[in-house]
Amino acid sequence: MKIVRTIKDLQNELTPLKIEGKKIGLVPTMGALHVGHASLVERSVKNNDVTVVSDFVNPTQFNDKNDLKKYPRTLEADCALLEKCGADFLFAPPVEEMYPEQDTRTFSFAPLDTVMEGAFRAGHFNGVCQIVSKLFYAVAPDRAYFGEKDFQQLVIVRAMTKKLKLNIEIVGCPIVRESDGLALSSRNKLLSAEDRKIALNISRILFKSSNFAKSHTVEETRKMVEENIAVTAGLQLQYFQIVDGYTLQEIKKWSDASYVVGCITVFCGVVRLIDNVKYKE
Hints:
Blueprint: E1 2-4, H1 7-19, E2 24-29, H2 35-47, E3 50-55, H3 65-70, H4 75-85, E4 89-91, H5 95-98, H6 117-120, H7 124-139, E5 143-147, H8 151-163, E6 169-173, H9 193-212, H10 218-230, E7 235-244, E8 260-268, E9 271-280
Parallel strand pairs: 1-4, 2-3, 2-5, 3-4, 5-6
Antiparallel strand pairs: 7-8, 8-9
Helix pairs in contact: 7-8, 9-10
């Protein structure tokens, strides 16, 4: 695996490969890689001739400077994991490479980006679209891989790709969980041992709600999740919404959509965790 730091060097590496007709897969990440990321990389390696993984903590998608400062950075460990997965290139640019000047572009995909995360993290998805579009232009991949844990992000990236008329297939990959059910996240590294035990209740409640939903209404299911989180010491619910998986708008009846997802964000101690469960697909 070759580590590349600049867009020019990356394109110099990829251009002859594209001329040869090689298919390029891109896995955008913010580093602090785990088994969930590995599953994306392995899928790209399987489906493409060349796999590029970006490792860049993007400052424009953090509306909280302390959150940006605390975000784990583990480049050496990331390299070791990617070597095992068979990645061909690691693109790990400095901030000034991706933002030589302020990016003043604005992306709006209302109502996709005004609900859930968009309602609580002003400017977050604009920052996501800024960096993902920059990576798409730099790499020009045939396919790009994103985890379904960041479900809203996946939907918005698809919308952005369509709006920019980019010929890139956006591949959504299933949530990878620990054996006890906890959704893998780079933020899990910030949990204390005790908080990690408490965090397990998030997925347990979501799984429980999946069965509960089979015989109860949307409203009853929503309340069940909210009430179960509320009585769990150490967890504080920010939101739980049951939405159409395509429009991200809340539904009132199960028959309102063919694809239904329950999206949740919970604070476990001071660590903000997201997860989701599919009720219909």
